[in-house]
Amino acid sequence: MNPLLIFNALSNWIVPALILLALLYGYLRGVKVFETFVEGAKEGFDMAVRLIPFLVGMMVAIGLFRGSGALELLTLVLTPVLRLSGIPAEVLPLGLMRPLSGNGALAIAVEMMNTFGPDSLLGRMAATMQGSTDTTLFVLTVYFGTVGIRKTRYALITGLLGDLAGLLAAIFICRMVFH
Amino acid sequence: MINLLWAGMIVISIIVAAINGEIENITPLIFSSAENAVTIVLGLISILVFWLGIMKIIEKSGFIRIIIYFLRPLAHWLFPGVPRNHQAMSAILMNMGANLLGMGNAATPFGIKAMKELQSLNSNPDTATDDMCTFLALNTASFTLVPTTIIALRAAAGAQNPADVIGVTIAATFCSATAAILSDRFFRYFYRHKKRRQIFIRK
Question: Residue A64's CB: how many other CB atoms inside 10 A?
């Protein structure tokens, strides 16, 4: 069977199926579904509002970087490497930001989707890269910080290796599936 | 690092614009980008509000427990140092389940609980244990079946079918999780042997 078809079927089914299961299971377990929904929905609003400062800061930086011609310059310098590897230069800022700051990377991904269009290859790459891994530095800081671990041994390297694998996979799988 | 990257991008941009003689473009670019950012967040509110509402229902109903049932064998293999019925194991399982469902917000409190429980098994409180490192590797890769934020973002940007990247995202996140777990296993093995060698030399 064509892997593309499987991807599509999976993509189309997973959200409706999850909503269906969540509502049925929740209702049968006696959860007040609507009240609970509203309670969670409020968090969604807060989350969106909390995102504004991150998004403004990052979008100004990335907008300037692209608008001023600095990105072109970087692309020019890196062209040999990029041509060999097949990685588009436009995804570099996102790849660099992804392990460092979740909201920062989110902002760059959003900017890319709006600049290139959400259904363009670059827009899809941005979405997939954003979803392919979590923010290593944040996870490390929060989880080790709360219990007072100072010697983190190899945790940072493993996290970054995971990021690298996820980001590269996102780029190449997108190229294969959506080209 | 974030500070360097952020400031670096802006400083370099202004210098490049100045060299190109396009410095007059900088101010309008700042305003238009900032305005765009706020517009995007406004578009994002609708879908985030709905999705986090659904997530709350999943959280409250105990739906995660069904998923945990299937995760248990995997967790035992990943965390050999954690006793099967220890509090740490249940917190780890809740965290894995929440991540799998794309409930990042719910996963973090479970993760912190898991770290506290793992710390109670730690004989050397300022150094991470093997199991802590594995737990971190799992969370930094965050294998997920439903990349909720991504769907929301694509919907807000006006994608024709916002969910059509789920398949590829699952594949990519699987690669990142596999790489993280494999390298974690490698380091575990490597460090154990290093320790053994040191003990041997001391003798």
Answer: 24
